[in-house]
Amino acid sequence: MLARWFPENIYTFGGDIDSVFSLIYYIVGFWFLLTEGLLIYFFIRYRRRAGQRAVYNRGEVWAELRWVLIPVAIVLVLDLGIDLKSGPVWAHVKEQRPETGVDVLVTGKQFNWNFTYPGPDNQFGTDDDLLVENELHVPVGQNVRLTWQSNDVIHSFFIPNVRLKQDVLPGRTIRGWFNATKPGQYEIACAELCGFGHYNMRAFLFVHEAADYQKWVAEHWPSGTAKSGDEAAGSNQPS
Question: Whole-model pTM?
Fold first, then answer.
């Protein structure tokens, strides 16, 4: 049910990420309702009434301490359960970056996203690099290896449909990836307040069919060869 509230998932591991969100949502939701129900019950049951004196309870005996220790134990067990569920998902998304794919350098700056492609020579920092402002073009069904940098302040690169959100920090190079499963146009936002123009820091992800992506590449590198994800595997990463 919860997944229906989310933007459409177009990421290979999006379902796994959504399942972690759903698990946390249902666990927290259940205990929130239970706790609020108990609070309302205690408000009514132990309200001030004629003939009933207030008692200060120091919680020093085990019968009283259990009201603290049992909830702590429950929270610990539930937290460990969430960790067991989310650990493999985190490893897939954050730690197991594929060795091949289309490489793109993403630079955040006030107030737009710059996407740099290495060009036909598959080398960053050369004359044939292509800089595209606020448009990320990728082929469907291929790994896209992103390298994030910031030119000024902290930004947060967020593609809801890909379930990808990464803080971009000045002075640091951060790497990640995704694999989009459905062609289309999807919004990219900055999810970190980064200045007076933060509201306008918006870009778009264009996921192309293989032939359309090759056409886009040929239009931007007319003297080069169309570059697929496999051909881009040997590209050098920016430092």
Answer: 0.77
